[in-house]
Design a protein that fits this description.
By secondary structure, this protein is of the alpha/beta class. It is built from seven helices and seven strands. The strands form two sheets. A five-stranded parallel beta sheet has the order 2-1-3-6-7, with helices on both faces. Strands 4-5 form a two-stranded antiparallel sheet. It is globular.
Amino acid sequence: MSLNVLRIDASARKSGSITRDLTDRIVARLENEGKSQITTRDLSDALPHITEDWIGANFTPADARSPEQLETLALSNALVDELEAADILVIGLPIYNFGVPAALKAWIDLVARVGRTFQYTENGPKGLLSGKRAIVAVASGGTEMGSDIDFASRYLRHVLGFIGIDDVVFVAADRMSADADVALQNAYSDINALPIAA
């Protein structure tokens, strides 16, 4: 069965990027399994940051938004539509200064939408995008995946869970500055072992 895959690349580098290489390999595995409906969102093309106008439009009831507010939310709506249509997310996550790239944070701000990707309930927030999987390809120079200074992967796992995506697998080429060859081989092995059919 063919599934919809949303590929998100967050590296500022268009060439020579480790995370782009890893997402290439993950997508190739998905395509080899026949799951080949791929949508690509390259965040290096610079998403806008949210503004006061965006916040005002977002918190205006949908049926009361002005034409200008609808235009303000158009890109955000398109990004959420991509998320809603996806069965599997493949996210490239380079760790920049211990956290996620600004481009990925901008994407998160545009898709974390009350009423679209999460809702408030009497028991707290509830994600609305359940039933999806995420495969995250991480690369870092010196930050060890899962260490006390890894604020990137923990943050992204939390955000994905917040919008309802709890099935998250990480593939890491971390601490590249220590031994790049070993880090890459570990990541490639993890990709080959991914439970794609799950």
